[in-house]
Amino acid sequence: MNLSELFMKIAKEMKNDHFFGIPGSGVPLDLMDSGKNIDLHFINVAHESTAAIAAGTYGLIKESAGLCLGVKGVGAGNLAGGAANAYFERMPVVCVCETTPNYSYENEMVQHADHKGLMKSVTKSMLTLSKDNPNQLIRDAFNTSIDGMPGPVLIDFPSDMGLMEAEDTKYNQTEKTIKSPGRYDSEIIKTISLINNSKKPMILIGDGVRKDKAMTQVVNFAEKIGAGVLSTMKARGVFPENHERWVGVSTAYGEGNNSRPNILTSGSDLIILIGADQMMTHVPWPKGEINSVEIISSQESKTLSSDPKEICKGNIREIVQMLMDSKEKTGWKIDEINQIYKNTDSRFSRPDNAIFAVQDIIEISKEILPKDGLLFTETGAFIALLENTWKFDDPLKYFGTSGGRTMGLMIPSYIGGSLATNNEIPLIGIGADGSALMRLGEFETIKRSNLKWPIIIINDAALGTMKYRQGFRGYDDYGLDLEMVDFAGVAKSCGLNGETANNPEDFRKVLRTSFNSEVTTVIDARIDARIYQDNFGGTIGD
């Protein structure tokens, strides 16, 4: 077999049935043809950045690493933007860029660029294929993308190597398991002592809990020690969010002094971080000293606290099971947690004078999306409401933005998510007008890919978040208004269904109908913009 065939064989073994990109004249065409022959389908997107995000989402759902490709120079530069999104959102993806032949790296050639220089700060690893054991390198790339904290890996694929003979040699995988401490080791003993001496412990849940299959153990642990529980955005649903001890999400929005995360944190005397990724954690650390303990299983984990009292490294399920030796305590009373909700939820209530509000969109979407459905979203003025009012009881049901707070994330994620689930699991994409304008070309991709689930675009004819912050800083209202774009019309021009909703009744009707369609319906949801923008400050806190 040739190198392109070997590459796609490995990609197929890594659970990929689709890959994403924009082809060039050489290696991408070789990879496309090799994929076609083994039912690994190429999805030609409108922009390279979409390819990286779609592939990263695809990898998350498949619990493997997705695959995207680009061409030399400018194409790689476009791909770098998507790789940055994947890096900040902890998405596992292998990014393949065709590059100039190895012998010509020092020459100024057409489309030649330093891809590694472009992507150094937003990749976990950067590799160049060579004739020396390419099988090892390719498999290492996929595994590196998955291991520890997921993220993008770059492979430069020289243009003269696509049809080179290659052999599927034995793969030597590096063992990266961290040995867990024993029950009587010092870090476990000290952690148990800290828990026993605390009166109101708090637990911050990260996605490491899911990866180490420790969800049941963490629930039992929280109940035993009476902890209040926060989740990172990446860990939505890892701890059941209807549980009486769950308080909310630690996010960049809604973090004012009166937010649920801050009230919980400032009222606690011990913070236990379990499987929490530094980038995914918008920790509302209060002023003053609070004891903290970290439980991590990744080699790449960085300390979240400036001065943790203890760090326990190893399999999270095993460590939490050892910590069950802690004393049973009341900790946070349930009525105290309920009071936190009562004091803060008013910030997210529907404006009385609105005809059509963001709250309507969220509540109706929750009502209509089936229980096993998935939600794809991004940043925008609406996101604080959605993050704080939509609860999840299972992991990998919510695909939003955390580390990147990324505009333009939803549509590529929707594409990757729809294809990863074979278009069989119901889902909704919810985004905003400013973000959607970045991805209108992907409406054609959605139609060509035969996707069918609804996309909601919240349309307030402005960059709402920045518009609020502009006013908050005392600046003039300037430069952030948008045209009232006819997103339904744009969708129709690409062969999709397009509907406009101006009130809750119309929105409920078109959303319900859209789930019975074989073609994606784009719903242009035109909210009461002025009312929403005036009320937005209450959702983001101080």
Descriptive terms for the model:
six-stranded parallel β-sheet, Rossmann fold, 3 domains, alpha/beta, globular, 16% strand, 37% helix, 542 residues
Give an account of the 3D structure.
- By secondary structure, the protein is an alpha/beta fold.
- The chain has 3 domains: 3-158, Rossmann fold, CATH 3.40.50.970; 186-344, TPP-binding domain (Rossmann fold), CATH 3.40.50.1220; 349-540, Rossmann fold, CATH 3.40.50.
- Helices cover 37% and strands 16% of the residues.
- A 6-stranded parallel sheet has the order 2-1-3-4-6-5, with helices on both faces. It has a 6-stranded parallel sheet with strand order 9-8-7-10-11-12, with helices on both faces. Strands 14-13-15-16-18-17 form a 6-stranded parallel sheet, with helices on both faces.
- Helix 3 (48-62) runs parallel beside helix 4 and helix 9 packs parallel to helix 11.
- The radius of gyration is 24 Å and the shape is globular.
Mean pLDDT: 89
Assign the CATH architecture of the largest domain: 3-Layer(aba) Sandwich
CATH class of the largest domain: Alpha Beta
The coarse silhouette is globular
Largest pleated sheet: 6 strands, parallel
Strand content: 15-25%
CATH topology of the largest domain: Rossmann fold
Q: Could you give a short description of this structure?
A:
With 542 residues, the chain is of the alpha/beta class. 37% of the residues lie in helices and 16% in strands. The strands form three sheets. A six-stranded parallel beta sheet has the order 2-1-3-4-6-5, with helices on both faces. Strands 9-8-7-10-11-12 form a six-stranded parallel beta sheet, with helices on both faces.
